Amino acid sequence: MEISALLTSAGINISICIVLLSLYSILRKQPANYCVYFGRRLICGGARRYDPFWYERFVPSPSWLVKAWETSEDELLAAAGLDAVVFLRMVIFSIRIFFITAVVCIAFVLPVNYYGQPMVHKEIHLESSEVFTIENLKEGSKWLWVHCLALYIITSAACLLLYFEYRTIAKMRLGHITGSAPKPSQFTVLIRAIPWSPEQSYSDTLSKFFTNYYSSSYLSHQMVYHNGIIQRLLRDAERVCQTLKHVSPDISCKPRSLTQCTFCGGPTATNSFHILSNEADSVKGMEVGELTLTTTEQERPAAFVFFKTRYDALVVSEVLQTSNPMLWVTDLAPEPHDVYWRNLNIPYRQLWIRKIATLVGAVAFMFVFLIPVTFIQGLTQLEQLSHAFPFLRGILKKKFINQVITGYLPSVILILFFYAVPPLMMYFSTLEGCISRSIRKKSACIKVLYFTIWNVFFVNILSGSVIRQLNVFSSVRDIPAQLARAVPTQAGFFMTYCFTSGWASLACEIMQPMALIWNLGVKVITKNKDDSYETLRFPYHTEIPRLLLFGLLGFTNSVIAPLILPFLLIYFFLAYLIYKNQILNVYITKYESGGQYWPIFHNTTIFSLILTQIIALGFFGLKLSTVASGFTIPLILVTLLFSEYCRQRFAPIFHKHPAQVLIDMDRADELLGKMEELHKRLHNIYSQIPLHTQKSSNNAESSSPFPNQELPDPEKLKPEEGDAVAKELWGFQGNDSGQELDGKPSQCFTRASFPKDDRTPQTDLDVFT
């Protein structure tokens, strides 16, 4: 690929970024768009100015960048939780390591590559990208020691940074466990595969079992019931109620009267509906809690069992309960608002079949995805494309079209196809039977990561080799050499992919085009006068794989084609500012994994380092440099040993709870006399149907953030300490809250019901005024 094609792609994407970022800085100041760009602030409390004559609203400004930069890690931890902090530390790690890599490779490796052979160089924009790769070195070159030394520096710096980050985040995870308010999940065990007995119910069987074997520690239990018609009716009725509440009363006729919604308590206009007074009166005083599942639903062989101490719950969750491992299966329970209730109805004996089926489905989809990837590679090889389709030769002779097709179009097409991947992988993770939303998102993250690395990196290399009629791997011994031949030829495509999937995607992320269109449609089509809005969860399952993919591309191209490094560094800097802004203003943290995404990042980074070393080893062999090859082999072994040490030293902290920590927490609560009160609050903490009381509904109505409030300028929005008092999670039922509260000063405490979907309208909430 020529440098001119790369410059064309870079120019197009830079223009897109400038336009979108300028639009964002204007649109975020418009009162009609507050619900799009300040969703978290509106729920968590904040100030804004509603001034139609404020001229600064129509002038782009970079003040949001300054505010994102000034926010400290402690403020971010209090506002968004540990997962958000871990994600941004991933970005910071990437900035640090690729800054070191860029300095070393641009200063030393790139000049060696460029002047590797005696030749007459053209102007930079007329050069081929392969001139800047290691392919430009002649065989037996004495300058390969520069590449070997750079590889040692990069590996040493990466391992050192990984070690310190792993140690820091492990401490933060322990602090997350010990420093937060008491959580019901620490006292609760999820029991599945309860054996069926015709003589008694599941509840009686469970009570008899734990009374017999855990009489000193067993407290009580809460059964799981079949997701039936009652739960669906409650959910649908609440949605209808909220829809009717926002409809303008002048659509069809004047409302004759208002009646109170039975389920959520909101006033509903009766435009075209006849209200039957007898039926309304008969259910007027009925509470949703009276529709108990014990009388209307069927018990399932699963339950939440509560124990007197955290240590008792930990022991029960870790040991095998009976000689049949398919019965009485135990796991530590997720937080109440993190439970994925639908999957608790799946029989445990089906889970292993479901996991195999989803694995087969994911692999099959990977092979289906070979078709668009191969087509995309054909666009990057115009010579082969013109031979296969002679009628395109006239069009391809035009210089600008040639540059657009080779430099911009392939990466755009690949990104469009990739939009179908995250929803499908999330669906596969749901089918697996994950018991919590955080586990489901983590599973989807791993699937998207594998899929992305395989298709963007390996499949592009393989398909490119086939199109160019190169030999594909004939044996295992040829893998390093074949990768070494193929990677430099794809350096141009990887750079254009960085422009499109990196820079342009970040600009689209901060613009939130789908939310913006949805907001406009709601106001225009439904004539909604209120600023109803949806709260979004941060898409870790899409952003972490993208971050790791660019890390893989950066490492593998560092000593082979270092021209990509400055562009990657720009991406990581933009990612840090944009993601931080989005986490502070847009995304709500309803549930989190407690930093469990870091081991995924660590392991993938180690994989990227080893793959880089293998490719470099293959190139040193092709260039007949036995000294460089000999020094690379020990580097691979040392990297593997470092990975194993980290796995033994830090990884268990992310998979299990330390008994010592839990025992100390139990003793502290006993000394303070909190245990008895905690036990009383355990009984109704896991409710399968969210209870919407009259009180919470009235709170939601009286605290609407938009209609008649004068709100200050969003540019002056800044996290302030003390906006809210941290509440214990034990008030989950009592205060109608499903938000995880960890007893720290925070800026985001909502009073909201937490539905089943990751993206649901939030209407039953308190907003700080």
Whole-angstrom Rg: 29 Å
**How many DSSP E strands?**
8
- SSE-based structural type: mainly alpha
Low-confidence stretches: 248-296, 691-769
Counted up, domains total: 2
> Rough shape?
globular
Residue-averaged pLDDT: 77
Q: What is the count of helical runs?
A: 30
Query: Gap between N and C termini, in Å?
Result: 57 Å
Q: What portion of residues is helical?
A: 55-70%
Strand content: under 5%
What composes the largest sheet? 4 strands, antiparallel
Strand order of the largest sheet: 2-5-1-6
Structure, explained:
With 769 residues, the protein is mainly alpha-helical. Strand 3 (258-260) and strand 4 (267-269) form a beta hairpin. It is built from 30 helices and eight strands. Residues 248-296 and 691-769 have low confidence and may be disordered. 56% of the residues lie in helices and 5% in strands. The chain has two domains: 3-181 and 351-522 and 536-656, no CATH class; 184-240 and 295-334 and 673-691, Alpha-Beta Plaits (2-Layer Sandwich). It has helices at 3-27, 34-37, 39-44, 63-70, 73-80, 82-114, 144-178, 202-213, 229-246, 277-283, 293-296, 310-318, 351-368, 370-380, 382-388, 393-396, 399-407, 409-418, 421-431, 437-467, 479-489, 491-511, 513-525, 540-558, 565-585, 598-622, 626-649, 659-671, 675-682, 694-702, and strands at residues 188-192, 218-225, 258-260, 267-269, 299-307, 329-332, 534-535, 760-761. 42% of the residues are buried. A four-stranded antiparallel sheet has the order 2-5-1-6.
Helices, strands, pairings?
Elements: H1 3-27, H2 34-37, H3 39-44, H4 63-70, H5 73-80, H6 82-114, H7 144-178, E1 188-192, H8 202-213, E2 218-225, H9 229-246, E3 258-260, E4 267-269, H10 277-283, H11 293-296, E5 299-307, H12 310-318, E6 329-332, H13 351-368, H14 370-380, H15 382-388, H16 393-396, H17 399-407, H18 409-418, H19 421-431, H20 437-467, H21 479-489, H22 491-511, H23 513-525, E7 534-535, H24 540-558, H25 565-585, H26 598-622, H27 626-649, H28 659-671, H29 675-682, H30 694-702, E8 760-761
Antiparallel strand pairs: 1-5, 1-6, 2-5, 3-4, 7-8
Helix pairs in contact: 1-17, 1-22, 4-25, 5-6, 6-7, 6-24, 6-25, 7-26, 7-27, 13-19, 14-18, 14-20, 18-22, 19-20, 20-21, 20-24, 21-26, 22-24, 22-25, 24-26, 26-27
